[in-house]
Amino acid sequence: MIYTQAFVTLAAPQWDRSIAFYSQLLAQEPEGLQTDRYGAFDLGGWKLAIYRPKLEEQEPPAAYPTLSLCFQVPNLDETLVYLATLNMEDPGPIQQVSHGREVYLYDPDGNRIILYEPRK
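The chain above was modelled as a monomer; its predicted structure follows.
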């Protein structure tokens, strides 16, 4: 198998809210923007694409997050200060986990985002 690129796509029934959310979170505008339909964020080695699913593709939400986007950050405290400037929902308390420290936040469609600082 030969491939030239890999990316993750998220179905976002609330597409405009999700594009705005990820634009703020990632501090960049989407590329390949197709108004009210599609946009992708270049994350240095992979892309995160957000699309509006057709009505027949929309399913009821799962009882728990079926997808988690994990972003490793060098300093979780500084990242939380940055998030506060965006007026986003409070991610909650920092959790001590086996691999370091992390917090959870959720995008407008309920997908979990894990921000973690690895153990030093």
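Helices lie at 15-26, 76-85.
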